[in-house]
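Lab manual, section 2.4: Encoding a predicted structure.

Procedure: take the sequence of the chain (657 residues), apply the prediction step described in section 2.3, and record the output as structure tokens. A sample record is shown.
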Amino acid sequence: MAASTVLIVDDDPLVCRALAEALELRGYATETATRGAEVLQRIGKRSFDAAVVDIVLPDLPGLELLRVIKGRSPDTEVVLMSGYASLATALQAIDGTAFAYLVKPFPLDQLLATVGKALERQQLSRALRESEARYRLITEHIHDAILLLDHQGRVALANGRAAALLGVPRAALPGRPLGALLGEEGGRLLAARLTAPAGGPAGEPFEFDFRRPDGVRRFLEVSLPAVTAADEGIARLAVLRDLTERKRAEEELEQQREALFRSEKLAAMGSLLAGVAHELNNPLSVVMGQSVLIRELAGAGSMAARTDKIVQAAERCARIVRDFLALAGRYPRERRQVDLNEVVRATLGSVALALRADAVEVTLALAPDLPRVAADRAQLHQTVANLVSNAHQALRGVGGPRQLILATRTDGLGTHVLLEVADSGPGIPVSLRGRIFEPFFTTRPTGQGTGLGLSLCQAIVESHGGRILYEERSEGGALFRLELPVGSREGGPMLTEPPAPEVVADAPSSGPVVAGSGAPPMPSPRLHPCRILLVEDETQVAQVLAELFAIDGHEVDIARDGGIALDRLAAGSYDVIVSDVRMPGLDGPGLYREVERRWPEWCDRFVFLTGDILSPEAARLLEASGAITLAKPVAFAEVRAVVQRVLQRQIPGRDGG
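Recorded output:
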């Protein structure tokens, strides 16, 4: 089998050569070009399986070259690369015709993996076309139902395959109108062709869904070639072909191709956003922290209201970044035995005021003794919240009664727990239903939605081994059904013991959820002041956290990296160690390992902060440590909550201490 050929386009010859050598080591054949004009001369005349194209070229924009390549050679998969991370350009490229978008500098392994996936999708597309061609070749003249019709369209003669395909005994076929045998839709299409004028579509085959008398559904193709026969009673030949298996195979291949495309699209977007998430999260942490400080100083009044709006805007930015990363599978999941009914009640409790303000009548039909599911509670809370929010948005445009119904039950076998979220809104138009789970697709006006809500719901439910379906209610409105397996351990570590009680103060419902808490924090009395070692390389983040801790009377020492932190720990004891994960020099995981080696009794005092994607090694260490990990940007109420939780562990006689 010939090696796949990859075209590399970059205005820097050294870059072209480096990428070509890396791809050739993997067995690919390569060609290079430094200008768009060179590509235009070759494309269409020569076959390329994939192309790696710089988005900035001296004579032709990369996006324009992308459109030319796909226009002349649709089978060529294109990977765009750029020296800057532009979210708008990435969306334009990936939502258009490019397979992926890479930001320089990138590891060669990432390029090789992306090109490999691009070629895999090309092979799937080619297999789909070849499969259809082979099917038609093999079945052109065999295994078909053959019927001879008289001038009134009645069956004069039929083979055994016709009887089997139509689900009617062979002896009962002669004399019956073929239109009646094909059902309502098939009969209508047949009549249109039999009555077509000369030169019309009479000889063109047609396809339709067919239901046999026994209820079995098939997909049939019917051809009606005219015949010249000695027997004047025969006017038409009808050939019925069963396309059911072919259609099923096409749908499966299409689903595989779409799944691969979506996976790679999300992976490319996740890689792009992962690069900027670290840069965004630290400034957002500072904005949120400083707003809290201003609010503490301002007390009640208009200034407090203004700072609340700043915090809410920053938290919205943080949620958007988290949604992108969660959609790309960038956050590790945790499994606990979760009561879905409790998740539903907690979610409704956080939005009850907004629903009442819009006169939405909420009906709960929660099954008693519902089996628990092994799930990430925070992710389920997010899923239910997204579905309720979508229903609420739809109901705002309804003039009559506004009804929201949430119901739980088990399936007939007791293997799955079902949650249904239904509303009396306008429902979803048929033309849009096939796209509602697409990332970045939204029917809301610009600025009122990212198009990630349902995509994120689907990703979360499927990561739990379940599925989410949309149905239109007979009485009007939309219905989303979640199906989650009972007792699944798929997708993350299973925690069999219930978590220790949380001690949290004044946490807003919209803030980030403490990893490991399993529920939104609830108000609780503050504990005594303590000594906190804050290990953070970002000066502004460290300063604002230190000021916020000082409000509670805590004594705070700041260390810029793990090495300085070890010196501080050697000089004295601290009640709580709050450490960033990614730092120059000795990072957070490295600091934890050293503390574990020197002072193992202090390991349960760790709280980790991360604003970046964890490496597999770091993720495994944090999981094994049992330490609480907070994702930046964090609301101070969340940090305060976990500090108090760590302090509780040190109180003699408390669970988990």
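Check your result against the sample. The chain has 18 helices and 23 strands.
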